[in-house]
Amino acid sequence: MSSPFHDIVFNSSLIILIWILLSIVCPFSEDASVRKIVPLILPPEIFLTSPRKPILQDSELVHRISIAIKQRRSEPLHRVLKPYESKFRADHLVWVLMSIRNDYRLVLNFFEWACLRRDPSLEARCILAQIATASKDLKMARKLIQDFWVNPNLDVGVSFGHFVEQLIYTYKDWGSDPRVFDIFFQVLVEAGMLNEARKLFDKMLNYGLLISVESCNLFISHLSKDLDGIKVALQVFSEFPEVGVCWNTASYNIIILSLRQIGRVVEAHQLLLQMELRGCMPDVVSYSTITSGYCQVGELQKVLKLVEEMQVKGLKPNPFTYNGIILLLCKTGKVAEEERVLSEPISEGIAPDSVVYTTLIDGFCKFGDVSAAYRLFDEMQKRKISPDFITYTAVICGLCRSGKVMEADKLFHDMVCKQLEPDEVTYTALIDGYCKEGKVKEAFSLHNKMLEMGLTPNVVTYTALTDGLCKCGEVDTANELLHEMCRNGLELNIYTYNSLVNGLCKAGNIDQAVKLMKDMQV
């Protein structure tokens, strides 16, 4: 006849043997839908440990509380449990949860009542996160885990170890739904605890659980916020498939964007080509990110080829794609082609947005075709697209450059009436326009209005005013204005000096003009 000690040794050995066998025969599932049912291979000591049992006196209290809240569930808990408040301890919370665990609504209500009286233990918090996950209330599970990590006084290293330990310890008896570890991983990532998230990934891998691809996407996305992080993200993207992570289109798009951000557009393009070979179809975001990268480096032909490739695959370029092309055409001076490019999305039922129209309008204005800019300005309003202050500013600048200051002033007032606030660029464009027409009084009136609005005139504003004053023969006033400009910490540029030198020469102050030219050279 075997002794109890031998039975314990035998059972422990058997459990360890089963654990080893499960570790061997339960491979990682590459299918995200199958991943959820892969068993978590817990260490043997977990199976040999059970939650601490209450003593007789505690058992009676826990029993009375459990019966009371079950039988009087329609009544407020604070009333039902008032007779037990003075005797209620933290341990009682866990023991009552054991009794009511199958009634999720009651579990939440009781946990809330207990938390109002004292902070729950880490074990209790993890238990409720397990129950919430098993009850498919993932939002609550996330909140329970998040609330623990918002404490600014936590020792992250120690707390992380304790939290993982408790989450694994409570897993067997309270939920056995591996999504709880996925939620914990996401919370760590969102809290910026990326090193801890990676440690959790590796630990779960050792237990036979693969973190979902959606959570891994969140991880590489948060990594990609700076140059050093992008390097780590690229490494993770390369390593994770070796342990069973199957990247999807969203994953590739994150890495393609990261490569574009650090100027490695060709590599991003190569990754796009590799996607299909790996059974992952690129989408509009994939193509738009790369076309944007090529637009930034001026590769117009590659951009147009990619757009054509998109259309062959049945993908419609979005406004972001067309905006990049239009901006590139503006930079390269091919403004005439812009309207043709704009007509393509319209013919395909893709409505250009405010950014696309504003880019086009600004391009036409800079190349002197104000009538074309005005035509687009009217068209966007007919399409119920409201011009913003940037659109108005672009047209106002174009009109002022073309000498149509009164039209610009009319548009300025129209802008203000629509509750759009002009900025320094808007005011400066009008000030320059008035100065060029010799209307210095109107220009200074706008300058004063700028100051009233809390806007700071820049060097271009002062240069325009200086030029206007000098052309009117008010060189001394212009000189005073330049001193004010220097007091405001602005440095004179070559255009400011030229305006003043020309004014001094016209006023016959040749010596002063020569002195100013020498100052310029210094």
Question: Shape from CA axes?
Answer: elongated
Helix content: over 70%
Number of helices: 30
Quick one: how many beta strands? 0
Classify the secondary structure makeup into a structural class. mainly alpha
H and E string: HHHHHHHHHHHHHHHHHHHHHHHHHHHHHH
**Main beta sheet strand tally, sense and closure:** none
Mean pLDDT: 81
The end-to-end span amounts to 107 Å
| β-strand amount | under 5%
**If you compute it from the alpha carbons, what radius of gyration comes out, rounded to the nearest whole angstrom?**
35 Å
- Uncertain regions spanning at least 5 consecutive residues: 1-38, 45-50
Structure description:
Helices cover 71% and strands 0% of the residues. Helix 11 (179-190) packs parallel to helix 13 and helix 15 packs parallel to helix 17 (284-296). The chain has helices spanning 4-25, 32-35, 44-47, 56-71, 77-80, 90-100, 104-117, 122-134, 138-149, 156-174, 179-190, 194-206, 213-223, 227-239, 249-261, 265-277, 284-296, 300-312, 319-331, 338-347, 354-366, 370-382, 389-401, 405-417, 424-436, 440-452, 459-471, 475-487, 494-506, 510-521. It is an all-alpha fold and 522 residues long. Mean pLDDT is 81; it is low at 1-38 and 45-50. It contains 30 helices and no strands.
Topology at a glance:
Layout (H helix, E strand, L loop, with lengths): L3 H22 L6 H4 L8 H4 L8 H16 L5 H4 L9 H11 L3 H14 L4 H13 L3 H12 L6 H19 L4 H12 L3 H13 L6 H11 L3 H13 L9 H13 L3 H13 L6 H13 L3 H13 L6 H13 L6 H10 L6 H13 L3 H13 L6 H13 L3 H13 L6 H13 L3 H13 L6 H13 L3 H13 L6 H13 L3 H12 L1
